[in-house]
Amino acid sequence: MDLQGLGIVTVLALPMINREQMIGAIELGSTNPAAFGADERSLYLTVATTVGASLENARLLAAEQEARRTADTLREVARVLNASLDPQEVLQLILRELQNVVRYDSASVMLIDHDMLRVAAWRTNQSDVRFTSRQVYTLQDKKGIAQVLQRQQPLLIDDTSISPYWSHTPDSNPTTRSWLGIPLLAESRSLGILNINARQPHAFDERDLEVALAFANQASVALERARLYEESVRRIEREMQIAREIQSNLFPKQLPTMDNLQLWAESFPAKETGGDFYDVIALPDQRLAVMIGDASGKSIPGALLMAVARSTARSEALNYDTPQDVLSQTNRLITADVPHHSFVALSYAILDVPAQQLCFANAGQLMPLRYTAAGALEYLYAPPGLPLGIDENYRYAPLDVALHPGDLLLFFTDGVVEAHDRNRELFGFERLEGLMIEYGKLPPRQLVYQIVKAVQGFCGDMPQHDDITLVALRVG
């Protein structure tokens, strides 16, 4: 500035000092040669000191407010990141929330996969997060990334065009001029790296590095939680699949065949495993044992109780000739092993095929339906009995039924009648009875198919509420 051209002949420069640190200066000019005497200089120096203190206080206040805003943002980031256990959603949240604390042009998350680095997700400031598994690198391909992972320390490259840590390879982004590499660590174990890129050199400073490091700590926790959760889910799914295969082996692989007998059975667990079970055993003298049961509880607890009850009842079926004795002995043997508030409902019947005579005992199971050749429908009411596992000394009583050629029997568990639709309306006994009347003359396999189809159609898109098991047989 041309001070003489403005008529300025005297200039006074005053330092702005705060806590013995010079933070700037104030320059005063005057057209009066004698404008700044000793008193004036003393006054202006006091003003300059006061202004310096005010500016420094304002700067400190702005820095404190910025730090508070950053801390609040990081707390919100932590809350958002930890709200999900889905790995892809966590990656999406990381790259989206990062933009709120560090302004970038593009960013990516690379995860360690054995001895390689895999680009798990990337995002630009103008695009959504994209996921990929095709971009894989060795540490030798990326000098800066290798430096970050080996030292487990962040690295700031102000200008990639001159930095020895930047790898100028064909797949490097030529538009990246500034780079922040932040390690993703879980208990001192490297998960990968957070790459933060800008198109301009010197786009990031030490504050950005510190904030990005704090952000990466939160991101690492979220990624590790999601990884561990995904691993546990996969492990449980594998274990449940094995449990289902084991349980499926407890069901008959092939139903017995006899003259003058048609037979079919199906079981559909509500979950991977269930508490429903059935068995059909060929006994001497052309007799057939039929059991159908429902152990309280679903999934693994129900399946374990079912396995105990089914194995014990099958063993006792070979030791005793009457349904009441099989139930009584099974009950006596398993009661001590049945947990409190648990039980097993079980129906057990012996059919003498040549004589067409049924002997049936019931332990808390639903009564079977009989559809006669004449078209009549009735329930077979055996003397009521407690479910197994409640009173080890309980004795069961039988019901003897004379069958006729063409009669059809349907044994079923409560999952059929207690299936419900979106309005919580039950499928109910009336609908089942209607199906028996409509399809009762069909072969057992087709009847079971029609019942299952009707139940599934009634429930619509509602998930299966309980295990469903049906055993149908026709004599004659």
Mean pLDDT: 87
- Structurally, the number of domains stands at 3
Measured by DSSP, the beta-strand proportion falls in: 25-35%
* CATH architecture descriptor name of the largest domain: 4-Layer Sandwich
Broad structural category = alpha+beta
CATH H level of the largest domain: which superfamily? PPM-type phosphatase domain
| Tally of helical segments | 9
* Unreliable spans: none
The fold-level CATH name of the largest domain is: Phosphatase 2c, domain 1
Secondary-structure element order, N to C: EEHHEEEEHEEEHEEEHHEEEEEEHHHE
Number of strands: 19
Terminus-to-terminus distance: 119 Å
- How would a crystallographer describe the biggest sheet? 7 strands, antiparallel
Radius of gyration, in Å, reads 40 Å
* Portion in helices: 25-40%
Q: What is the overall shape?
A: elongated
CATH class (first level) name of the largest domain: Alpha Beta
Overall description:
With 476 residues, the protein is an alpha+beta fold. It has three domains: 4-75; 82-235, GAF domain (Beta-Lactamase), CATH 3.30.450.40; 251-475, Phosphatase 2c, domain 1 (4-Layer Sandwich), CATH 3.60.40. It has nine helices and 19 strands. The protein has helices at residues 38-81, 87-98, 143-151, 206-248, 299-317, 323-334, 414-417, 428-439, 444-459; strands at 10-18, 21-30, 106-113, 116-124, 130-131, 136-137, 155-157, 178-186, 189-198, 261-268, 276-283, 287-295, 344-352, 357-363, 369-371, 377-379, 398-402, 408-412, 468-475. Strands 3, 4, 5, 6, 7, 8 and 9 form a seven-stranded antiparallel β-sheet that branches. Strands 10-19-18-15-16 form a five-stranded antiparallel β-sheet. Strands 11-12-13-14-17 form a five-stranded antiparallel β-sheet, covered by helices on one side. Strand 4 and strand 5 form a beta hairpin. The chain is elongated. It starts with 9 loop residues before the first strand and ends with a strand. The model has no long low-confidence stretch (mean pLDDT 87).
